[in-house]
Amino acid sequence: MFSLPQANQPYKVMAIYKFADLPDCAELQPRLAKFCCGLGIKGTLILAPEGINGTVAGTVDAIDALASYLSDGPDFGTRLIGAEIKFSTAATMPFLRMKVRLKPEIVTLRAPEANPAKAVGTYVEPEDWNGLIERNDVVLVDTRNDYEVGLGTFQRALDPATKSFTEFKDYVETHLDPARDKKVAMFCTGGIRCEKASSYLLSKGFEEVFHLKGGILKYLETVPEDQSRFAGECFVFDERVSVGHGLVEGDATLCRACRHPLTAADRADPKYREGIACPHCSDDLAKHAAAAERQKQMDLARQRGGAHLGDDAAQAATRARARKRAEAEASRERNKAG
Hints:
The protein has three domains: 11-102, Alpha-Beta Plaits, CATH 3.30.70.100; 122-227, Oxidized Rhodanese, domain 1, CATH 3.40.250.10; 251-313 and 321-333, no CATH class. Residues 1-6 and 309-318 have low confidence and may be disordered. Strand 2 (42-48) and strand 3 (51-58) form a beta hairpin. By secondary structure, the chain is of the alpha/beta class. The strands form five sheets. The chain has a five-stranded mixed sheet with strand order 4-1-3-2-5. A four-stranded parallel sheet has the order 6-10-9-7. The protein is 35% helix and 20% strand. The longest helix is centred in the C-terminal third of the chain and has 27 residues, at 311-337.
């Protein structure tokens, strides 16, 4: 577990996962939801017989209380001790509501042979990651989906071009060979997909499997930017959209039609229409019609001095990013003048 300096940001964000034995997850669901809602926490937590996964945000005191409740509270006991937990901050609440969901898996692979509680690859600390992935005998694989890879990835990493994690099994079958690929290193956003992916590769006979402990988020928080081998920004599943080194909010935004993350180049594309379309969904007229109607209702709500449902967090986050970019630009101009 680690915590970032608060940097005067009012919201604390906690990402957590752990593969643990939770056969009573259905009983835990309402208790956990009540605890979070009572503290004004928002976000999503997934409970499954194999463990917990999710990201939530709230005040500093509320998130600290939740972390304590999960690590040694009466409902979970000691089962979540050692969970992978990452803290960051946000200028605005990045979620709209609190959800605690029950699912068969905390990260869906649909491969029963992949059981991180029984077998998992070798963890590699962020400070040791560069040395590993620069070796010529190591195959480096990004286990995330294509839209995440598009925002940023490690140099030399292979992109499986998957739309969902379940497709990773097909990629392994067609592109990786345990007889040829003796050493495979993998990474993902926070580490959870890699734990399952590494367990899956071991079940298929791969000899040495490595994965980045804490994922890209831990790497960006730990490794100095001038030593980084990660190019771009890391996609996150909330209204921040992406983060960069130090886990500061990135420049990416979301297409409100298809939910694809957008870079500055995407937003400069002639096919981009704010709130309605982007280069990734330019041919999907059905999505455009729905997004155009939503944008119309948002514009009408703003004209009336209100906010369209679901618009508060997204618009506030956009304004906060614009403000930070303006402040950074002003600071650079002052430095030039001095």
